[in-house]
Amino acid sequence: HMIKAHNLYTAEQTRELDRLAIEQGTDGYALMNRAGRSVLDNITRRWPDAKQLAIFCGAGNNAGDGYVVARLAHEQGLVARVYYLSEPARLNGEAHQAWEECKQLDLTIEPFVSGMHRDTDVVIDALVGTGLQRPLADQWLQAVDCINVSPWPVVAVDIPSGINADNGRTMGAAVRADITVSFIGLNRGLFTAEAPEYTGEIIYEDLEVPEICYESVATNTFLIDDGIIQQFHARSRIVHKGQCGHVLVIGGNSGMAGAPLLAGRAALRSGAGLVSIATRPQNTMGMVSAQPELMVHGIEEVRAADRLIDNASVIVIGPGLGRDSWAHGLLDRVMQSRKPMVVDADGLTLLAHEPARCENWVLTPHVGEAARLLGSTNDEVSNDRFSAVVQIQQQYGGVAVLKGAGTLVSSSDIRLCPYGNPGMATAGMGDILSGIIGALMAQGLAQARAAELAVWAHARAGDIEAEANGERGMVAGDILNRLRTVLNG
Predict the structure, then answer these.
(1) Is residue 114 over pLDDT 90?
(2) Please, what's the b/e burial string for 157-185 (b: 16 or more CB within 10 A of its CB; e: otherwise)?
(3) Measuring CA to CA, how many Å separate 82 from each of 63, 116, 131?
(4) Per residue in 197-212, pLDDT tens?
């Protein structure tokens, strides 16, 4: 059950899973009934005192699920009222059957005109499912608005109406749900772009679809979950610091000493054996007094970094690097070294000006940096985060990490991180991530695994900190000690 919940699918792939389930002998109407039953069960679990349900039914199978919920709720002695947007007599197949069975019962089925006429306890969104092709308009927009302004909790069937199942963008508008009950296959759009603002808690129900169906639909997109920490083995009792890797952080141009300091501290807190920093000479005293375990070197002449580069097992370049000739010169030298590296921040901006390809680096852009790397706009990147991260990986090589809500890690496949919170939208968080990735690579993890584990640990640390002290006002340094907790399993 859990493995299937880790796979993420496009809308087309979930339709294929449906089709295969029916081909394998599961009756389509039986699937619809299981879906409706699971929605109702989740409602009674979450809101045991709910007596009245308002169910918004649109077109297609999503509406069919809604009619099933109405019928089952009525049979359970609840009051169900259906507001429809599509003439139910025109529904096809299973959805039509669901309406037919509903209509024989003593429950209200009426067209949606302007609002909900009576109080209710829970609202169910069965307007449009994963097949939405064009932006919502007219009465559909009104219905979404009506649901969103109502004071009652909302349950979305399969996906909040208006969210694009493939890329997570809203199409005109979208329903804000408290829970989303998703069937058979989880859509990749549920977890990234704008979707996290709308889905509420996501509950996955496989509806007992046979295992063989999942084996026949290959996906390359997976959810990162807490099991990932098991890849990070306990240390040998007799290890020494030299076996835990040496991370070199390069950055901290004039006025930007904080960034490499945060990256260096994160590398220490993530278990690197040794961490050195190469920075402008005026920063050295401040850094050492802030974190005496760091070996800080003032570099005025670019070539003075060569010895440090030679001694490092992994290089993190970019935090506070700046974009002057000092910054350019250091990036050139690191790239000539062919050492494993993490390129972040200003390093990415320099790279966008002079694109290069390398197989042993991890690039960690935010949306703006991703747009520069691709020569596109922030909007284009946000409109399809999946294709953006894959394009960066294909053009530049190595591993690409696209940060933001639902961070994506692209290598031979795509991994999506569903953790993290808005308190992490603050200066320095990215520097910490690059330090963690560097430290995990230095400890021997392959770069894709290091990136994936680092993204997870960073997000989890942020969530633990938010739980303890709240989201607003969290600063990057707050998650350093939480990292230890998370990475020690």
Answers:
(1) no
(2) bbbbbbbbbbbbbbbebbbbbbbbbbbbb
(3) 10, 10, 21
(4) 999 999 999 999 999 9
